[in-house]
Design a protein that fits this description.
single chain
Length: 368
């Protein structure tokens, strides 16, 4: 599937956002799970409440893929979720109104100003964050691989930061898949994604992006979600299926060339094993466990349950720091699937807003 940005400039996006924002007074009957995130993002149409949220926060431009996802009819039939079906129908009505506003060309200067506030020195904030992460990762490799004795306290203290930075490089590639690194510059966004994917593990960014968007379109559906288990939700079988899906010969060739270049530069072999191989493998485990297995694992009493993203399981993280240490806030999985265009550093803020909204709804219910 080819994902093209709507319009060469952000103007049409703001028109769409404003159109959704003008519908704030509409009330949609929702389940308690839907209230937690504000609204459900349907598989076939982007939720109007998500558009409202994006408009109010000046979120990045939408992509055409956000508006034209595969039909969710099969998902609804399999899950038997009547609340979700009603939500899909409501979203269809609201989205059509938002699209009508887009066609009218109405713009709100205040929202354009919000979008510009996300820029730093002419570049999207995400570009600077990504560049900082990649620079820190490269610097840490230089320190740990070339200048850290393995029998020193320094080696012990630097192992976890090295692993966490490996993870951050992949998270950068992931955010680029959603256009969150450089939303105002698709070419730069794609470049940053390809660079980060290659540096992390020789990954093919374009094929990864295609598979990842399939995951978002068919979350928790066996044989359709490439990241979901194939019938056995156990940790090891699921991980094996995941590795088989994404490990390629091309990737292994690129990795060997990269490792060979580092070794030719004079890096001690043992240091490479510890800080590149071991830290890199543990980073992959961290990403799979907290980014796929924990949030999408079905309950033990129903291992074949369809795990649409609204049912994502939480982790133990209850603070911003704990959430970051877990896996760059990927424990905020409902928030990520609700609005994939949020960068990793924006997810905790979305979680806090959702919890506050839930608290307000609870207080209103008690008063009634």
């Amino acid at each position: 599937m080819h994902f093209r940005t709507i319009g060469s400039m952000s103007q049409r996006c703001f028109a769409l956002q404003v159109g959704a924002g003008q519908l704030c007074c509409a009330r949609v009957t929702q389940s308690s799970a839907a209230r937690r995130i504000g609204a459900l993002r349907s598989g076939s149409k982007v939720s109007a409440v998500r558009l409202i949220c994006m408009a109010s926060r000046g979120a990045p431009m939408l992509e055409r893929s956000d508006l034209q996802q595969p039909s969710s009819d099969e998902f609804v039939r399999q899950s038997g979720d009547t609340d979700r079906l009603q939500t899909l129908q409501n979203h269809q009505i609201l989205l059509e109104s938002a699209m009508a506003s887009e066609a009218s060309g109405h713009l709100d200067p205040s929202r354009i100003a919000v979008h510009k506030s996300r820029m730093m020195l002419g570049l999207d904030r995400g570009v600077w964050v990504a560049a900082g992460l990649i620079t820190a990762w490269a610097s840490m490799i230089h320190i740990t691989v070339f200048h850290t004795p393995l029998d020193s306290l320094q080696a012990v203290l630097l192992f976890w930061p090295m692993m966490q930075l490996h993870t951050g490089v992949f998270i950068t590639a992931h955010d680029a898949m959603h256009g969150a690194v450089a939303p105002s510059n698709p070419r730069l966004n794609r470049f940053m994604g390809r660079l980060a994917g290659t540096l992390y593990a020789g990954l093919d960014y374009d094929s990864m992006k295609k598979a990842h968007h399939e995951h978002h379109a068919h979350t928790g559906l066996q044989n359709k979600d490439p990241d979901f288990h194939s019938g056995n939700p156990g940790l090891l079988p699921w991980a094996g299926k995941f590795i088989k899906k994404y490990l390629t010969i091309k990737q292994m060739v690129i990795l060997n060339l990269m490792v060979g270049a580092v070794q030719i530069s004079g890096a001690p072999y043992k240091n490479m094993v510890i800080f590149l191989l071991c830290a890199g493998l543990l980073s992959a485990v961290q990403l799979f466990y907290f980014g796929t297995y924990v949030p999408h694992k079905p309950p033990q009493d129903n291992p074949q349950q369809v795990m649409n993203w609204e049912k994502s399981n939480p982790t133990w993280a209850t603070t911003r720091l704990a959430s970051f240490l877990t896996c760059y806030h990927f424990d905020c999985h409902v928030e990520h699937h609700s609005n994939p265009r949020l960068a990793w550093y924006e997810l905790w803020g979305a979680r806090k807003q959702a919890l506050e909204s839930e608290r307000q709804d609870s207080l209103q219910s008690e008063k009634q």
